[in-house]
Amino acid sequence: MREKVEAALAKIRPMLQADGGDVELVDVTANGIVKVRLTGRCKGCPMSQMTLKSGVERIVLKEVPEAKAVENVAE
């Protein structure tokens, strides 16, 4: 499943990078929770939670049906 999640994140990454941010995969748990870290300008952006849920999570859940949720982890 990790490879599928990486492929989904690769689709989102150019949009985030265009705004000076990025996303990195931290972990995929056994129960389907995808843990990511927003980096760059996304890290401190007030809209980062919306980016995570409306962008990153939406694409990951669409591309990887076995994923249950996407969570941002702090550094």
- Unreliable segments (pLDDT under 50, ≥5 consecutive)? none
Shape: globular
The percent range for helix content is 40-55%
Side-by-side strand order of the widest sheet: 1-2-3
Q: What's the CATH first level? A: Alpha Beta
Quote the beta fraction. Answer: 25-35%
Q: End-to-end span in angstroms?
A: 23 Å
- Largest β sheet strand count, sense and barrel closure: 3 strands, mixed
Helix/strand-derived category reads: alpha+beta
InterPro entries: FSCA_dom_sf (IPR034904), NIF_FeS_clus_asmbl_NifU_C (IPR001075)
GO molecular function: iron ion binding; iron-sulfur cluster binding
Domain NIF system FeS cluster assembly NifU C-terminal: 5-71
Organism: Humidesulfovibrio mexicanus
Please explain how this structure is put together:
- The chain has a single domain (2-72), classed as Fe-S cluster assembly (FSCA) (GMP Synthetase, Chain A, domain 3), CATH 3.30.300.130.
- Strands 1-2-3 form a 3-stranded mixed β-sheet.
- α1 (2-18) runs antiparallel to α3.
- The termini are far apart.
- The chain is 49% helix and 27% strand.
- It is α+β, with helices and mostly antiparallel strands.
